[in-house]
Structures are given as C-alpha cells and as structure tokens.
Amino acid sequence: MRVRVLIAGGGPVGLAAAVELGRRGIDVLVVEPRAAVSHARPRCKTLNVRTMEHLRRWGLAERLRERAPLPPSWSQDVVFCTSLSGRELSRFTGVLGLVPEGDRFPETGQQAPQYVLEEVLREAVDEIAPGRLVLGSKVVGLRQDDELVTVTVEDSTGRRSVVTADYVIGCDGPRSVVRDGIGARYVGGEALRPNFGMVFESPGLWEHVAHGPAVQYWVINAAAPALVGPLDRTDTWWAIGFGVDRETGEREAHRIIDGVAGRPVRAKVLSTDPWTARMMTVDRMRHGRVFLAGDAAHLNPPFGGHGLNTGIGDAVDLGWKLAAVLDGWGGPGMLDSYESERRPVQERVIREATANMRVLSTELYADDLDADDEAGARARRAAGVRIQESKKAEFHSLDLVLGLRIADSPIVPVAPDGRSEWTGARLPHLFLADGRSLYDLLGAGPTLLALGEDVSVAAVEEAARLRGVPLAVARLPEPVAAGYAAKLGARLVLVRPDQVVAWLGDEAPEDAVALIDTVGGGAPRPVHTFPERKHHV
Q1: pLDDT value at residue 537
Q2: SS3 467
Q3: 470 closest CA partner among 331, 327, 336
Q4: Other CB atoms closer than 10 Å to residue 350's CB: what's the count?
Q5: What is the CA radius of gyration of the chain?
Q6: Contact call for residues 53 and 107 (beta carbons, < 8 A)
Q7: What per-residue confidence (pLDDT) applies to 130?
Q8: Cα–Cα distance between 370 and 374 in angstroms, integer?
Q9: In sequence order, which residues have a C-beta less than 8 Å from that of residue 526 and are 6 or more positions away?
Q10: pLDDT along the chain (537 residues), means of 10
C-alpha cells in the first residue's frame, strides 16, 4: 500500500491528526492495535476550550457534546471535602472553561471520557477516508530514505505487510515503536509516589453525596486521600487513590471506595489503572520524514487536564503543516517549525502540571477536619484558605490554555516593532452580530482578515497567487472592524489555519511576496507524487 501519511496509533492524537489531514484532502492511513475503543479506562476526562475550538472547526463539537454523559450545564464546580458524605472544605466554581466568558472563546470546555472523543474521531476519519483506519494492527518497524518511509505493519494474526508513505507520525504512546525507530528518547524524571486509578459502579452512591453535583471531588481524609468524579449521572465513577501502589490498590479497592464515600457502600470495580506521574519530553520530535506527537513525544502529570489537550495541539500543528507541504505551497521551513513551536508549549504544560501535583489531598490533610468542635472549625477554615491559595491555578487555567504564544518560529515573521503581543498568539475571538464566531469566517488555509471596507488586500492576494498559497480573504463590517482593529493595533491580520496570528499591520508590507514566503516556510520544495483519491467532508 502507498499513502501520503501513515499514522502509527489511533488514539485521540493520532485520530485528530488524521482528521486534520483528511479534511485537507490528504491520503492518510491510521494503524491502531485496538479493534474497539475501550471503555474500561477513560483516562482523560477534560477537553479544554482550545480542543473544543478545533472540534468546532472540524464540525464535530456538537456531535461530541451530544455523546458526553455530563453536559457543562450539569456542573462547573470542583469540591474539596473530607468525603462525599462528609464536610465540605472549599470549592471552585466556573472551572476548566466550562462557563462562557463573553467573546473570549466560541466553545466552552467539555467533560467527557476519552472513549467518547475517540469514538467521535473514529467516525470522522471513516467519513473522510473509508477504509483508512486499520484496526487490530500495529507498526512494528520502519526505515526511511530521502524519498519515502517504509513501514512494516503486523496484524493480530502475526502476518506482516509493508506500507510506504511520504511521512509518518508516531502517535503510539509511551512505548512508541516509532520513537525507538528514529532513535529518540525521553528526557526528564518521574514522581516517586504511586497512584491507583479505578473505575467503579456504585448504585445509590449519589444519595450519599452531600455537596451537590461536581466534576471532581477532592477527598481529604486519612483513610482514602483521593480524587474522584462521576463518569455519568447514574452509577459510574472514576477515582485516583494517591500514594497507593498496585498491590495495595488491587487488594483494598473496596476499602478505598468506602473511604471516599465516607461510609460503606455497594460497589463493583470495573477496571484498575495503577500509574506514576512522569515529566518527560523526547530529545527530538523529528527525524527526516518521521515525526512524534502526543504521549510518544511528551508525558506530564494529569493534574489540570492538559495532557491529551496538548497532544491534540501537536496533531493540529503538524497536520496542517504536512498538508501544506504535500499540497505544494508549504516550503521546508514549514516542517522545521513543528518542534520549535510545540516544544515550548509542552515544556510549559509539564511545569504547570508538576506545580499542580505538589499539593494533592495527601498534602492538604490536617487533624480535626471532621470534628464538630471549635478545633474542627479552625482546621476547616485553615484548609479552605490553603486550598484556594494552592489550587486555583489548576482549575482556572485559561491564561495557559488560550494565552500560549509562539515566541520563536521560522514561519512567524518578527513583528515590525519587535514586540507585538498578538504575533504568534491565538487570534482574539469575537462573536459577530448574527451570532457566528469570527473563527467561522476563516478559510482552510491562511486567511487575510481585513478590518474595514477601505483596507487594500490586493498586494498580499497577488503575492499568495504567485506562490500558489490558498489565501482566503475575510472582511469585518463597520463598526465592529474599527473596534477590533483598535484592539489588535492593526487593520490587516494574516491568520494561519490553526487560528494563530502570523502577521499584522495597517497595510500590506512593501515586499508582500517575502511575507508569504516566510509564512509558507520558504520556497516550496518538490513533493513526491503518485495517484491518489482525495476525500472531503
């Protein structure tokens, strides 16, 4: 088989990369060992605002929300308590981007088990390119030359076949064959303390919850310091026992559940997932025609819900850039920018998640938290203060989610004044008078946003035509355009396909071709071509 891009691993990151590529007409093959999506280990449960913006762009946001067991309206709170039936110590409201904030973003965050996202993305890949999601098979080896990557794929019976591709993306997780194949390795460390994850079913547990609906409950007691939350509005829950190793967790799972509940409850353990937090990035994310994304490239503690979302960001960044190169308008700098743009994001997320991990339920425990006397009241007040001081950044992290800026990239021109706050940043969002999102006006390729009817776009349009760049032009009507231009300090804005500002100014630069060449990664290089089918949504 011959394909343009082969993706090793069909988890959320690999599937997201396939959707990003497939919607741009790129022939893609996803190789995934699991025949069916597993509901046993929901893993990630937080889809942040930025991920939901990408799902909106793919036309999948509403589909995912319809499938998610917990709508944002159900709860936007995180509760800290001595147990589900015990004392409340503190709470955070409006967490994790679950509440709209005016024009700040078009899509709120969404609580959804990872398997819901995977099922939606599998469907989307199948709709874009039927038969291009190969299940029950895995990548077992690869080699590359200047022209192609040759990949060995093994099915569940042990039979092997060979696929050639222009490019390969390794989204095959912490035990990545692709990472080993290019000689990359993790650099970093891991936490000393083990954790024990589980999913359990407990009919009637909601009857004992004293704190109302919440997306997470941080349980602070000596018996079972833990993090727990609902997977649905009926009987299914997930929990993480802090400091609990595999052997203890398997033996004492029901004791931990009773400790979380604050009383003996009926429960059936559906699955277990022992883990230890790791803080790692690979020493390189690319070798030649092979790239790494998601957990194959970086690992971070789950606190704050950034892991999967960072991987989706990898998939989007690499996906549109590979498509640009394969379509002929992206030059060599396009792919060179992948690591320089994504590594600072990954490193910052690891720092933030590690900081969040420093204070867990085990660190918040104190004597007398459940006591009915004055000592208990004092202990609870002190605990509440510490919780608010130490955990706020974990649940109100939109400055991190939306505020990441590309500081150094070969395809982001240096701002004329050397310090524009918007160059390399996410385009500020705006709802239009008819209710549409500004993002809905952006094209599949770069978009030149003109803020006013009298702003000339001719020079940039002509430069894009000369270089074969599929530039879209969008104009904002007055008086919205004037207000938005004042906010940005410019009347022309060149926006990348990932909604990042590539350049802005009051008028086209003197050398518009040079601008287009920079944003497009330099002069396009020859692309190996072969007959293919293109699929569009």
Answers
A1: 27
A2: helix
A3: 327
A4: 22
A5: 24
A6: yes
A7: 74
A8: 11
A9: none
A10: 96 98 96 93 92 98 97 96 98 97 97 97 92 94 96 97 98 97 96 95 97 98 97 96 96 97 97 96 97 98 94 98 96 96 96 96 96 96 97 95 92 74 95 94 96 94 96 93 94 97 94 96 53 32
Do the beta carbons of residue 265 and residue 358 sit within 8 Å?
Answer: no
Non-local CB neighbours of 123 within 8 Å, separated by 6+ positions: 63
Residue type, 392: K
Per DSSP, 426 falls in state: B
Task: Find, among 345, 362, 302, 356, the residue nearest to 92 by Cα.
Answer: 356
Locus of tokens 């500081």: 407
Contact present, 7 and 17 (Cβ < 8 Å): yes
Please report, as a single letter, which amino acid is at residue 71. P
CB count within 10 Å of CB 230 equals 24
Structure tokens at 131: 């038969």
Tell me if residue 368 falls in helix, strand or coil.
coil
Find, among 431, 435, 432, 413, the residue nearest to 423 by Cα: 413
Cβ-based neighbours of 527, under 8 Å, separated by 6 or more: 166, 325, 326, 328
How many C-beta atoms surround the C-beta of residue 251 within 10 A?
A: 9
Name residue, tokens 């608010």.
388
Residue partners of 444: CB distance under 8 A and separation at least 6: 23, 24, 470, 472, 497
What is the model's pLDDT at position 416? 65
At 363, list the tokens.
């660190």
Token look-up 């039936």 returns 85
CA distance 452 to 505: 13
Pairing of strands 28-32, 2-8: parallel
- Give the Cα separation of 44 and 109 in Å (integer): 13
CA 307 to CA 314: how far, in whole Å?
A: 11
Sequence-distant (6+) residues with CB within 8 A of 421 are 405
Q: Are 220 and 89 in contact (CB under 8 A)?
A: yes
- Alpha carbons 471 and 461: distance in angstroms, whole number: 7
DSSP classification of residue 75: -
Report residue 250 as tokens: 């398997």
How many Å apart are CA 120 and CA 66, to the nearest integer? 10
Residue 297 in contact with residue 341, Cβ under 8 Å? no
343 token code pair: 């590594």
Residue with tokens 């600072």: 344
Return the closest-CA partner of residue 481 out of 456, 450, 507.
450
d(CA 291, CA 285) in angstroms, rounded, equals 6
Please name the amino acid found at residue 357.
Answer: M
Residue of 437, 446, 503, 500 whose CA lies nearest to 491: 503
> Chain-centre distance of CA 374, in angstroms?
45
User: What are φ and ψ of residue 243, in 5° steps?
Assistant: 75, 15
Alpha-carbon gap, residue 267 to 278, rounded angstroms: 30
Distance, CA of 23 to CA of 15 (rounded, Å) = 12
Structure confidence at residue 421 (pLDDT): 85
440-465 burial: b if 16+ Cβ within 10 Å, else e? ebbeebbbbbbbbeebebebbbebbe
* Non-local CB neighbours of 435 within 8 Å, separated by 6+ positions: none
Q: How far apart are CA 140 and CA 137, in angstroms?
A: 9
Name the DSSP class of 431.
Answer: B
